[in-house]
Design goal:
The complex is a heterodimer.
Chain A lengths: L11 H26 L14 H8 L7 E3 L5 H6 L4 H8 L33 H14 L6 E6 L6 H12 L4 E7 L2 E2 L2 E2 H4 L16 E5 L3 H16 L5 E6 L17 H8 L3 H11 L5 H24 L15
Parallel strand pairs in A: 1-2, 2-3, 3-7, 6-7
Antiparallel strand pairs in A: 4-5
Helix pairs in contact in A: 1-2, 1-10, 1-11, 2-8, 4-11, 5-6
Chain B lengths: L2 E3 H15 L3 E5 L15 H9 E3 L4 H13 L3 E5 L6 H12 L2 H4 L9 E6 L14 H5 L5 E3 L4 H13 L4 E6 L6 E3 L13 E4 L4 E5 L2 H15 L4 E5 L2 E3 L3 H11 L2 E8 L4 H11 L11 E5 L8 H7 L3 H14 L1
Parallel strand pairs in B: 2-3, 2-4, 4-5, 5-7, 6-7, 10-11, 10-13, 13-14
Antiparallel strand pairs in B: 1-8, 6-12, 9-11
Classes of the chains: A alpha/beta, B alpha/beta.
Chain lengths: 326, 327
């Protein structure tokens, strides 16, 4: 039997919960995909199916008081940081019980009390926010860390470079997690960046840059653990590049003309959930039956979420002008 | 009562808040030992140290976002934006993040931050260091916008801005930094959204902002010699705008000139003029509303061109006289 090498913080029970959580994320997004196709949810959405290991693996190491900033492709980050699927689904349904009372939608889900400082519709927009959150921890002498999720495309934004530099010179407790899913909308990262690994950009700011297999839960947890320890020791930020792939298009309107079916199939063979399942089974944490049971439980979570959302009240027109100002 | 300068009033408002509230801190470029480009933060690093008077790299987008993120997590940052023109570089964080977070998040979380920034021409710094871009931010729901014209107002409005739980853009006029007025030593707050009648009069209302308040008052003194009685209203805050004070004044005088330093086209004067036209004051108007603002060009370098670019006292006098000729 293989031994799993995971951070101390990750208990056996936690491993099992993480497996289920990955399925909750997957089923949530599949349901969203289905409902968008049927016209039951409006607006737009960005799915991270295939990227569950970076969301679940990184957030597995966080405590409630730790913070995250997320992206337009952020459903997984939110769930992994403790958001409930029912309030998230309600938000996508535009209901008052949603995380943003139906006023934010898919791209703006936040739960400030639980340390989720928000998804963000602006590429790289959340990176300086994460640095600000880390500055608060530093100035108030609080022990929390801030994880900043962003995509490969964000590393070409000025905000990324400015914020990483700030975090580095002030040695702030922030972990930059770049989910390199190979495309910024339709643009292949290899055409938009002239380095093989985005993590090498960290060198320019004097911080460690780590390349990780973003589809490997175990590796994601271990590199995150190192980065968090470094941050909590006051040694400053770490840049983690999680190499991964989004199975779906950029958003609901994407016909994916810029990539091949072969490439998609190749990445689907590297499914992070299947891989984690195999790791857990090989190490004796999971049986086939138990895995199926957890998967069924996850499915039920999403069914309940849909029911909750569907039965929740719509905002009224009186809500239009509330909460513009504090 | 003692007199201090507008610059000293701004510094005093910040220092007094920082002495009683550890969450308040300043971040910006060259604000430490250098004391800020105009000297506003001079001496503050000595009192409060480099953690709370925090020198930053030249990274307007980064530091603006850092201020937003720190505000969202419990601090009350004052972002010192060295020249107001540089707001263009910080715009995503101010417009897309700071202004919208509370609404997007369904009323959870708040962004109590102040962006203090020097604006205006008259220093020979030319096109990229002299603009008055306040109309840009007034257009964004979620932001408040303040433009003090005196030392007294600057101190009281800045306290209100720091105490406010929303992002406030606080425009300081460079040419006003060295002007003085009576300023109490104790702290006091001037509510945002309360205009000030800087001079009472009965013939014409001039609504003026920032440096134009002083030019309007000078014009009013000249016009008084000819028996023309001018009322000067300083909104002090553009968002929220004290509509009532303006409507009351215009209803009384029946004539209004709106004057600001920003380019007239698309300037905030258009909003004020429209607000008056849509209000009950319209019924009292005996002449069309007149707007004065900068010419539609970048701010020029040559001193005479620079002067000609923005309204001066004679332009205001002329506008008032022409208006009185009509009716």
């Amino acid at each position: 039997m293989d031994r799993l090498i995971v951070p101390d913080k990750i208990t056996d029970n936690k491993l099992i919960n993480l497996y289920k959580q990955m399925w909750v994320i997957r089923f949530f997004e599949e349901k969203v995909d289905e409902y968008f196709a049927k016209g039951m949810i409006h607006g737009t959405t960005h799915l991270a199916i295939g990227q569950e290991a970076s969301a679940a693996g990184v957030c597995a190491l966080l405590d409630v008081e730790d913070k995250i900033t997320s992206t337009h492709r952020g459903h997984g980050h939110c769930i992994a940081k403790g958001a409930t699927a029912d309030k998230m689904m309600a938000e996508l349904f535009g209901r008052t019980t949603g995380y943003c009372k139906g006023k934010g939608g898919s791209m703006h889900i936040a739960d400030v009390d639980m340390g989720n400082l928000g998804a963000n519709g602006i590429v790289a927009g959340g990176i300086p926010l994460a640095v600000g959150s880390a500055l608060t921890a530093h100035m108030k002498k609080l022990n929390y860390v801030t994880v900043c999720f962003f995509g490969d495309g964000a590393t070409n934004e000025g905000s990324f470079h400015e914020a990483v530099n700030l975090a580095s010179i002030w040695k702030l407790p922030v972990i930059f997690v770049c989910e390199n899913n190979q495309y910024g909308m339709s643009s292949p990262v290899k055409e938009m960046v002239n380095v093989d690994n985005l993590a090498t950009r960290a060198q320019a700011y004097g911080i460690p840059g780590v390349v990780a297999d973003g589809n490997d839960m175990i590796e994601m947890m271990n590199v995150t653990d190192e980065a968090i320890k470094r941050a909590r020791r006051g040694e400053g930020p770490t840049f983690i590049e999680a190499k991964t792939y989004r199975w779906k298009g950029h958003s609901k309107s994407d016909t994916k003309k810029y990539r091949t079916l072969e490439e998609e199939k190749e990445w689907m063979r590297k499914d992070p959930i299947k891989r984690f399942k195999n790791d857990l089974m090989k190490a004796g944490f999971l049986t086939k039956e138990k895995a199926e049971k957890l998967q069924e439980e996850a499915k039920k979570v999403i069914e309940d979420a849909v029911k909750f959302a569907d039965e929740s009240p719509m905002p009224t027109l009186d809500d239009l002008l509330t909460d513009v100002y504090a | 009562m003692r007199e201090i300068t507008y610059l000293e009033a701004v510094r005093e408002a910040m220092s007094q808040e920082m002495r009683v509230n550890n969450d308040v801190f300043i971040l910006g470029e060259d604000i430490g030992v250098y004391g800020g480009a105009f000297g506003v933060t001079s001496g503050m690093i000595e009192e409060f140290g480099p953690e709370r008077v925090r020198d930053t790299p030249i990274s307007e987008a980064g530091i603006a976002g850092t201020a937003v993120g720190s505000a969202l997590t419990g601090m009350r940052p004052i972002l010192d934006l060295q020249f107001s023109d540089f707001i263009t570089i910080a715009m995503d964080q101010i417009v897309n993040q700071a202004a919208k977070i509370r609404y997007m998040y369904g009323g959870k979380g708040m962004v109590p931050m102040v962006v203090r920034t020097p604006s205006g021409s008259g220093t020979g710094a030319a096109a990229q260091h002299s603009q008055s871009l306040e109309a840009w931010v007034t257009h964004i729901p979620g932001l408040k916008v303040v433009q003090p014209s005196t030392a007294y107002d600057a101190k009281g409005l800045l306290k209100a801005a720091i105490d406010d739980d929303n992002p406030v853009i606080f425009y300081e006029h460079k040419l006003l930094y060295k002007t003085s007025s009576h300023v109490p030593e104790d702290t006091y707050s001037i509510p945002l959204g309360k205009a000030d009648v800087k001079r009472e009069g009965s013939d014409v209302t001039i609504v003026a902002t920032a440096i134009m308040v002083h030019r309007a008052l000078e014009a009013a003194m000249e016009l008084a010699k000819e028996g023309i009685d001018v009322e000067v209203i300083d909104p002090r805050t553009l968002v929220p705008l004290d509509e009532e004070a303006i409507i009351t004044s215009v209803s009384k005088t029946g004539r209004v000139v709106v004057v600001h330093e920003a380019v007239k086209r698309g300037g905030y004067g258009a909003e004020i003029a429209s607000m008056i036209a849509e209000s009950e004051a319209f019924d009292y108007l005996v002449a069309p509303i007149k707007r004065l603002g900068a010419a539609p060009s970048p701010v020029p370098y040559h001193p005479e061109l620079e002067k000609a670019h923005v309204p001066q006292v004679p332009n205001i006098i002329q506008a008032v006289k022409e208006m009185l000729k009509r009716a």
